[in-house]
User: What shape does this take?
Amino acid sequence: MELWQLRNRLWTAVLILLLAGVSSASSVVSRGLIEADWRLQDRLRTPESPVTREQDAAGACDGIKNGQWGFHTEHEDRPWWQVDLGTCYELDRMRMYNRTDFAQRAARLIVLVSTDGNDFRQVYQHDGTTFFGHADGKPLTVALRGVAARFVRLQLPGRDYLHLDEVEVYPVGADTNIALGRPCIQSSISQWSRRHSHTESGTPIDLILMRGVRLADHLRGVGVDVAPLEKFAALTDADRRQGSYLQIRWAIREMALANPLLDFDSILFVKRAPGTLPHISDQYYGWWSRPGGGVYILDGFKGPTPRLRCLTQGWAEGNFLRPDLSYDGKRVLFAYCRHYPHVSDMEKVDKTKLPEDTFYQVYEMNLDGTGVRQLTHGRYDDFDARYLPSGEIVFLSTRKGTFLQCTTANTALTLTQTLPDSYVRCGGDNKRPCAVYTLHVMDADGHNIRPISAFETFEYTPSVAEDGRILYTRWDYIDRFNGDFFSLWSVNQDGTNPQLVYGNYTVKPQIVSEARSIPNSTKILFTGAAHHSIEGGALALLNRSLGDEDEAPLTRLTPEVPFPETEAWHDTYYASPYPLSEDVYLVGWSTHRLPPHAGSTQIKDERNPVNAMGIYLCDRFGNLELLYRDETISSMYPIPIRPRRKPPVQPTEVDWDGVQEGNLLVQDVYQGLTGVARGSIKWLRVVAVPPKVQPHMNRPSIGVSAEDPGKYVLGTVPVEPDGSAHMRVPSGIPIFFQALDERGMAVQTMRSLTYVLPGQTLSCIGCHESRDQAPPTGARPLASERGPSKLRPGPEGSWPLRFDRLVQPVLDRSCVECHSLGSPDVKAAQFDLTGQDSYRNLITFSENDLEKLAFEKDRSFPGDGVARQSKLFVLLSQDPIHKRIPLGEDCFERLFTWMDTYAHSKGHFSAEQEQQLIVLKDCYQHLLKP
Assistant: This one.
């Protein structure tokens, strides 16, 4: 057994013994349990993680001036550092001590100030001369002349490293450095970054006191009595502080629970054991469930004798999942499945052999446990239900199935039939089928279920934002690596306008999960989670105004826990955060590390314990106060019981029962295509993606990476001289675009999916344009002045996509005379382009050139299309011998289409699906150009 396992089991045993002595009739959280939890935190929350931006930035305000760097950003555009002074001051001056070596990097240093941390204005820029400080006793002093600010930011105007030794800030009328020891942050970290003294380090009591003082600074302004803690903050002797350990702890807890944000007396939550298969996707299938738990309410949690109520007393042994509370605070949505011990060992592809109630279904009940209604039925997992402002309910479901087109009519079939699922491309088998779940909506009574997403693979953890949008996570790996890219997206309540919010290319965190909009704020709280484990990780705050990728827009709220899997695995993790403000949250905290995904359907309990998590009050200052923990089973998903503001109802533009088509308008493809000359893009190719219908990992292999998405070409439409394009396409089908030059070669490829819903017109600004770019004003796009273009069909063999019908006819007509066994050209005969060998020989030509080009890439750039970079194209267009072969433009179109759709052998996953694609094409002939 590993040391961390032994340690965690020992401390868990201590907690169990303490809790076992508590009478449930009097209190569910004893004083002894709280104190034992503090001691456990002291052991588990001592930072051992990689350096954070906050920890490195703190070196500029630690009082140490030695000519070295106090902080160090990465080499980047406009790097910055900033300090939060805690409150707004009238500022007199700043002093900046430079790093002795490479001091010239700060020669054009800019000083900016802000009162709110969002809107900064420049108050100074250095003149280009080099300054020092420690070496010559002459720090750079900047007069601020009474400017009002809480936040002070330093920034460089170009691309460079930013690093200084020390920064001091002085208010008007005082000679005290008010930046000393204050929270800092910077734009990035580098290999030279490190922790500094007043960040999360030092002895536990110093760390505890520092966190408490930060909280006191915050609460003092809202009328909370912080005097009990202030007397301990004044202690300077370490032994005296240590001797006051419990008094300090209790003073911090009482202060935290007095926060006016805790204007509720009860918390809704769920007790549950995580499933037996730890994976971001498998954890939400009922067949991996473990029994126990229920839906609970914790009453009087701020007082000395909290009380516990179970709302699901008497339910059959099962598993409860991810509740939601109605806006008026009177009703509860949740998911439940019954536990059958034998099901986990069964083959599960034929769902008719499984009990119906082994699948998660959505239920609703009153807050007192009465009026229970089962809203969904059937052998599909339905869960993560959330109330919409309209009274409808959004939820996740596997009902998408194998349909090529997501429609209300197709979804209605799932209400009366057990239909097959669609599956993730990169995992699974008959015992572990990974059925895809996506966003659906139903009426308040469970009727009128409809798919509001046509995405090809998984979507996760929806929530309703303050502005009414639905926030959710999308696993977006279209022709790119499957491990990362679980990005944060938003969509309107009717499913229209799916948009990236954050993280299309971001690797750390690997998964942006459990995102919730913060009340009275534009910021978002989320869990940075791992792909190969259950839901959990580190908490982070997203400030979307600072960017949509990587670290710049993030504040790490739990810096002792790294982002799991892509940074490191830690002994603890957080999950299911519920924000009360930007600073205070309800949260689940685990005393065990995330369980590993070992490729097995059974993980030993010590690696995936049933009782890892309890419910806590957490704040961004580092304080964590136990509210409830059950020694036998995890407690999670805390929600305050109180009415909450209902976001606005968004009007719908979807005609669900109308013609299953919609319009797409691209306003200017050149917006985002850096370096691409106007007039060079002539066509947009529209490529559709069918669902995978086989449960086995990477089977069948239809392309070079073995986990490629299927594809078929709907057709192409012309691009107008101003870059606009207008088309009509089938609704409910996931599609992506390729910008083509005059020869039909891809210049840029979309590495995601979009779709239209019935009757919708979806418009985008450009091609890979900035997410913050506003639509252009002035003249209307030329394509909008006319009706939508009809799709010009791709060559034969592109819908359905088949190499033997798309490319092989070109080879048979123009190539096999030389490139076949028995050819008089001995050298050419060695490169056989007949029969089954032709596909493999083409993609491996010239040291596997096409295979390398077509293999999954994390992102695409203008000009890096497969065909235009391929050595095969160079050979055909430049080699003197091959240039004499009479290949017409129709032949090149076939080759370009095949190569630029990533050189598949075929674009579908079964013969049945191929026939369905043929039928679909027949149904939409009216959209195609004759």
The chain has a mean pLDDT of 91. The chain has three domains: 53-186, 266-640, 661-927.
